[in-house]
Amino acid sequence: MSYVGRLAVMVSVALPVYFVFWMVFVGSFAAHELEIGIIATLLAAAGTAIIDVQYPSRFAPSLSESLSCWRLPWYFIRGACEILQVAALDFLGIRRAESLFVVVPFDTGKLHDERAIARRVLAVSYTTMTPNSVVLGINIAGRKMLVHQFERTASNQMTKSLGAQA
């Protein structure tokens, strides 16, 4: 598909999605909200197109990398329990919450490789969705991922399958 065709598909998909986001944001079907929503949607789609022209997206995850999110519900429950436990122990004065930064070795791949970019994006997104870990960034040159945790835990299997090495 040509670049113009890809851009047209992206904008035609973005328009209804952005309009739905607008309607959820305002929560009203009043005429003036619909009119402003159309204008906001067109501006958002134009902005998306302009950014894509300047900085073309290179995101090509494999199917297994995309589907590694199947583990998220369990990680969410486990992470919530860990946070509640840490908060309860801190509240009762039994053990202070650590709240620490962890540097994790990460297979970053090459800077402009579409598959490596996808792995990094998915690793940051999926790991940050769990309540007990927030990825602050990935240093490509140093091949490291910086994670904030409330209690030191090993990287989960999902993050390891996306490139974490510890």
Question: Could you characterize the architecture of this molecule?
Answer:
The structure is a single chain. The protein has a three-stranded antiparallel β-sheet with strand order 1-3-2, covered by helices on one side. Helices cover 56% and strands 11% of the residues. The chain is built from six helices and three strands. It folds into two domains: 3-54, no CATH class; 63-161, no CATH class. The mean pLDDT is 89. Helix 1 (3-26) packs antiparallel against helix 2.
Summarize the structure.
This protein is mainly alpha-helical and 166 residues long. The chain has helices at 3-26, 31-54, 63-66, 72-91, 114-129, 157-161; strands at 100-105, 133-139, 144-149.
What order do the helices and strands come in, and which of them pair?
Elements: H1 3-26, H2 31-54, H3 63-66, H4 72-91, E1 100-105, H5 114-129, E2 133-139, E3 144-149, H6 157-161
Antiparallel strand pairs: 1-3, 2-3
Helix pairs in contact: 1-2
Number of domains: 2
Helix content: 55-70%
Instruction: State the low-pLDDT regions, or none.
Output: none
Count, helices: 6
Alpha carbon gyration radius: 20 Å
**Shape by Cα distribution:** globular
Order of helices and strands: HHHHEHEEH
Mean pLDDT: 89
Q: What profile does the largest beta sheet have?
A: 3 strands, antiparallel
Q: Strand percentage, roughly?
A: 5-15%
Write down how many β-strands occur, each being a DSSP E stretch of 2 or more residues: 3
Structural class comes to mainly alpha
Q: Whole-Å distance between the termini?
A: 40 Å
Strands ordered across the widest β-sheet: 1-3-2
